[in-house]
Amino acid sequence: MKLKNRIIVGFLMIILMPMLLLAATLFGISEAQHRNSSGSDTVQESAYDITIADTGSSQTSIQIMTKDLFFTALVILIFTSVSIGLWIYRSVAAPLVKLRKATQNIKEGNLDFVLEVDGTDEFAELCRDFEEMRRRLKESAEEKVLLDKENKELISNISHDLKTPITAVKGYVEGIMDGVADTPEKMDRYVRTIYNKTNEMDHLINELTFYSKIDTNRIPYTFSKLNVDDYFSDCAEEVGLELETRGIQLYYANYVEKDVLVIADGEQIRRVIHNIISNAIKYMDKPKGVIQIRVKDVGDFIQVEIEDNGKGIASKDLTYIFDRFYRTDVSRNSSKGGSGIGLSIVRKILEDHGGKVWATSREGIGTIMYFVLRKYQEVPMK
Question: Which positions, given as ranges, span the membrane (predicted)?
């Protein structure tokens, strides 16, 4: 029952009870007087020996009965008032005690409790609102803890992965300065290694910058119509040059008709391909590395498949590889650097394009990354 209704009921009981008791008292007194007057008439008709003592005795009995009725009414009124007061007090005090305990818990930083309350009055609704606030505070606190953990992990990853190429560059530069690279072949190999390591650092810094834009939802997209054949051919040529310096063979196949278009941000889709290829390079464990890019037509979408012959991904890890900071290589040896956000960036970009990304893999054989983009289709004007 609502608190307002409880107060109204209590007020009516306190008002009506005395009125009913007063009415009952007056009715009792009038009945007693009526019986006495009737008895007097009967006695006068039958005999004339009524005495003053009899009249006094009747008056005394009426007074005693009146006192008894008023005393009973007073007791009933007190009992009713106390009962109604306790009824209203318990409906207010019980939830207030629970609320006080709950606020004390929150003050002490404890959010691992549940505020349970029964009823439908205002205080019960207040307690339920308070419980909803506690639940959201707990979720927010857990999110903050997770975010802090992720940020610390990111700093640790970036620090480690920047230190590795910087150390290598420093070593090769010292080698050149000391005259270790005393042949054109050695000099060429040293310079190529320095170039690759500086590219790695540049890629890590770009990833970090892009990650900050993801967190604030400020990714700068510039959508336009892209010809699938021309665009992915250019991407394959660009990727092929990088893979060639690493001794990895690239095979490219396009099974889409030449006039098929997609609406996409060319720069960001290049980032998607680059991140997937970089991931494949990191975990390439074969002497002769091979990466294949296939572009296919699958109805309303075009599907891009990027396959490598690396070490593969365990089935237990496959569903998590697109999560932020997830790394299958927990040992973090220097040959497999990375911030752990590359594939999460891939998923975010493709979701913002209305597409999706997934993977299949077999350990020891390799991995295939798939992603789809919706085709551009002109709507005919009526």
Answer: 7-29, 69-89
pLDDT tier, 33 (very low <50, low <70, confident <90, very high otherwise) = low
> What pLDDT was estimated at residue 24?
67
Instruction: Please say whether the dihedral angle defined by the alpha carbons of residues 173, 178, 180 and 186, taken in this order, is positive or negative.
Output: positive
pTM: 0.58
Domains in the chain and their CATH numbers? 137-216 (1.10.287.130), 224-374 (3.30.565.10)
Nearest to 196 by CA among 241, 235, 251: 241
Cα dihedral 346→349→354→360 (10° resolution): 0
Q: How far is CA 140 from CA 51, 108, 143, 144, 147, in A?
A: 93, 17, 5, 6, 10
Distance separating alpha carbons of residues 284 and 278, to the nearest angstrom: 10
Give dist(CA 307, CA 310) in Å, integer: 9
